[in-house]
Amino acid sequence: MWFAGNRGNYAYACTRVKAKKRFLLSRDVYSRLLVMDVYEVGRFLGETQYREEMAKYASVYSGANLVEVAVTRNLANTYSDILGFTTGHLREMVGNYLKRWDIYNVKTLLRGKMTNVRAEEIVDTLVPAGAYTEAYLKSLIQSSSVSEIMDALVADAALAITPELVREVVDAGRLAPLEDHLDQRMYYDLLKVVKGTVSADKLLRDFVREEIDVTNLKVLLKLKAARIPEDKIVKYLIPGGMDYSIEKLRALAQAEGMPPIIEELEKSSMYADIREPLERFKTDRKLSGITIALDKALIRKSEKFAHFYPLSVLPIVNYMIRKKVEVDNIRIIARGKASALSTTVIEDLLVV
Amino acid sequence: MALDPTAVGLALVGAGIAIGAAGIGTGIAQAQIGAAAVGATAEDPKMFGKGLTLMVLPETIVIFGFVVAFLIYGLV
Amino acid sequence: MLKPEEMTRVVVVGSIESLDATIECLYELGVLHLIDFTEQDEEFRIGQPLPTASDTSQKLLKLRSIIRSLEIEDHKPARAMHVHDIRSRMDQALVTLDLNTSSKADSRQKIQALVREKEGEIRALEPIVPFAIPVELFDGYDNLSSFVGICKTDPSAALTSKVAECEVFADARKSDVVVVAFVKSEGRTEASKILAEHGFQEIKLPKVKGDPDEIVVQLRKQIKELEADLARIEADLDAIRKQFADFIISSDEHLSIEILKAETPLRIATSANSFIIDGWAPSHRVDEIRTALDTMCCGLAFIETVSPEKSEETPVKLKNPKPVKPFEFFINLVSTPKYEEIDPTLVLFITFPLFFGFMIGDLGFGLSLVVLGAMIRWKFKSSPDLLKLGAIILAGGFMASVFGLFVFAEAFGVPFHPPVENPDEHSWEVIANIPIHPLLDKMRDSMEMIAISLVAGWIHLTVGFTFGFVNHYPHSKKHAVGKIAWLLVLFGLFAEMMVIAGDATQTSHFMNSTVLSPIPDVSADMIGIKVSMPALGLIVAGVLGIVVFEGAMALTEVVGVFTNLVSYARLAAMAIGKGAVAVAFNFMLFPMIFESGNIVVAILGVLALFVSQAFFVFFIGALSSGIQAIRLNYVEFFLKFFEGGGTEFSPLSYERKYSVITK
Prior knowledge:
The complex is a heterotrimer.
Chain A: H1 10-21, H2 27-35, H3 38-45, H4 51-57, H5 63-85, H6 88-114, H7 119-125, H8 134-142, H9 146-155, H10 163-170, H11 176-193, H12 199-225, H13 230-235, H14 246-254, H15 259-267, H16 271-284, H17 288-308, H18 313-338, H19 343-349
Helix pairs in contact in A: 1-18, 3-5, 4-5, 5-6, 5-18, 6-7, 6-11, 9-10, 12-17, 15-16, 16-17, 17-18, 18-19
Chain B: H1 5-43, H2 48-56, H3 59-75
Helix pairs in contact in B: 1-2, 1-3
Chain C: E1 7-15, H1 19-29, E2 33-34, E3 45-46, H2 52-70, E4 81-82, H3 83-125, E5 144-151, H4 156-162, E6 166-172, E7 177-184, H5 188-197, E8 201-202, H6 212-262, E9 269-270, E10 274-282, H7 286-296, E11 301-305, H8 328-334, H9 345-360, H10 363-379, H11 384-407, E12 410-411, E13 414-415, H12 446-472, H13 477-501, H14 506-513, E14 523-526, E15 529-532, H15 533-550, H16 558-567, H17 569-595, H18 599-637, E16 659-660
Parallel strand pairs in C: 4-16
Antiparallel strand pairs in C: 1-10, 1-11, 2-10, 3-9, 5-7, 5-8, 6-7, 9-10, 12-13, 14-15
Helix pairs in contact in C: 1-7, 2-3, 2-6, 3-6, 9-11, 9-17, 9-18, 10-11, 12-13, 12-16, 12-17, 13-14, 13-15, 13-16, 17-18
């Protein structure tokens, strides 16, 4: 539009995403999927939005593998689709939000390569939803050595990989420093593009920062429970959080045992959402309840934001989150069925 | 009515502007709605009817232009 | 008509052993609309899929991937296959197909990817062919950076002058420049800045060695060979298609039906030894279900009618006589009406062709539309939606012909007789003297046409508000009375418009002397406009009523009634506009055809006339008239009463097209 500059095609993109959102699986569908066996799940999904991918991969895979590969590819296709039909600044924001998948893919393929996983297996676990295409990632996997892959990655200025990090990976065989760098870089870039000048964008900025909080808290909980010392934990933390600065988190990491973190969580803005699992944790010491509740709280927040500004980047991000949750849920169901977990156990792991 | 030709000419130009400006206004309004409607229909063809309904809403503006133009036309 | 089919709330209960038989029986009947069971508790859970579901699902997954590999999604078997044959051939066929298709489809995909890759390499190499430098020499230097790419403008001069020690090769093409530059590493940033200013786009060269020209020739040869392979595979796949396509499509249909039944328990409440199916059925067919269950389930399952709870939504099956039915298409396009609501299909059946016909108003175009509608109905028998659309176009075309013949007396934009004011205008008199004279002339009676449009609008809106009254009456008397207040405002506004028009148009004269004659002729002049006191009184009374019954917020919509009424002027606008376009083309092109005296010019003129008439007047005209006619119904009319959002009646049933079963 001549009066909108190159802000982006909000009207088109948001209504389109809103229409997509109506096709997300409902709670009732999950309860039916839980009763089905894995082939029925696959066939059922083949009659929904996953039709194309199910038909495509059914000739190569079967059972739980088929479901997993098809839904992750569908996720990737859906994301590329969304990126494809957005323009202007909106596209820039969406693109940067999707960068996490590039990071995820790079991490996955390096990990796979370093532990000598078969190339096909690495390809199966990829989610080519970011800027790197499946073909490009495959060509990376086909490279003979880790150092060759690193050479290719260094060439991408957006990742800002220093020679030091390359040495860590290639010579010392340590991936962790690179992974931390990539995570931090991803959030840094994202926050750089999502400015607080438009109020809807500011909400997204806040949301991303809260996402950093949740990511940090989950890391802290897990590592603390595993009794990892503070100096190690700090390396995994991402700066830029909303309520929890690095200093605050460092203090929690230094403190003795779990109780200080639990106390901190009881004071947090998300307390209402995580109260129940927090109470349960005190007796059964199981973390999964808390982490799922934290994720749920984040999803709920994105849902709320999406309603504030229906013609903004928020409903689009909200949909992308919801779609990811759906795909995760389906994968949990498929994997759970394949390893003969009971329905109630699977049900508890779902984020509905 | 015996009007001087310049006045008649100006009145007719006014009629033209009435329709033209109304058309531009409708165009601006419909561009956004149309984009949204196409977006919804791309995902779900069932949205076609609703999209069409919403899309043609601003057209009444042109009709106003048309009626005004004809009232002017009738006067001269 | 106006009300959907009457539904009864039913419950089918039975012992768990009879679940299979009951499901089978209900699908056979196809009259029970199932309510999905969702609230699970300790005693009642959703049922387990029938044991066949897993195996059938596995087969279906395979079949559907084969369908995709063979690209036979749209294949339609010439005749239906017997279910017995499908069953006996299934296992064997699946093995054969699985072995042959997936591997072939796989290699096809791989070859296609290879071809694409090689084509990409050719695309990358072609620009550098003119330089005749071996490909491996383009990069891989320690302290030399190379740039290979395409610029919008030639950067050589800028590069050589600003960057120390650089070598630039440029090859100007039609609209851009291929650039190869070698730069000392120190000058790298400066060079890339300059290149960026010239719109540089990098070419990623493939990792090959040798003369680019030779490599391109080689690649072309390889692509040829690959394409030959592809053709062979395609021929193999074709053979498989010939042999199996019918079987695959028929089996897909049959297995889908099997699955439909096998997974129905997932929508049903079951306990350890019983099941409960909640649903709706058309009232006059409940007995049919009862008898069928008695005979097919040996008394282990039976049906009860119950009274529905308040919160429950009754599914809607529209009930209209055959000629009206196609117009349900327009209702489905928006939303299914609620069960309690009035079904407005009948009004659409009357108004759509009338509006459409009035806007087209041309015998020639009308008859063409009749033919078009008939052809759609004849050609697309299998698509229910297109069948309906065909009927709608047919009806619209018919009314357009009627208006064109008796009211406007014209065909293809040419009048039967020249108008009195302009006896030289082209007309059909040249060919035949049709004894019908126009009641309305599109170009000259515009005010009359606007007045007619307003009357149509007033009637249409009055029906709309009346429907609103009927819809609201059962649950909110207050809102129902509010609709009467709106009717008063509408009537006042309409009366006032007719008073202003006075005797200027025959329509307003007729209205004033008939429908509006009981209104006392008391009027005052305000700012030069004649204001009828009774009309003003009605409007004021209506507005007061609206405030009382619908709240002050509704006041903002009072202007909307005026807008709605004026909105119907589009009927006149479209008719005049279309008429004007047709006349303009005829005016420009007829002299070319009849008076030029040159046969070539005349033929060109006829062609131009045909294209302009066919495209601008007929196609665009019919499309926009259709949209406007439906818009007046959707926006102006529906918003007065229609809520929609009802549940469509979709009974347990299936349709076999490509498979048959005999008992």
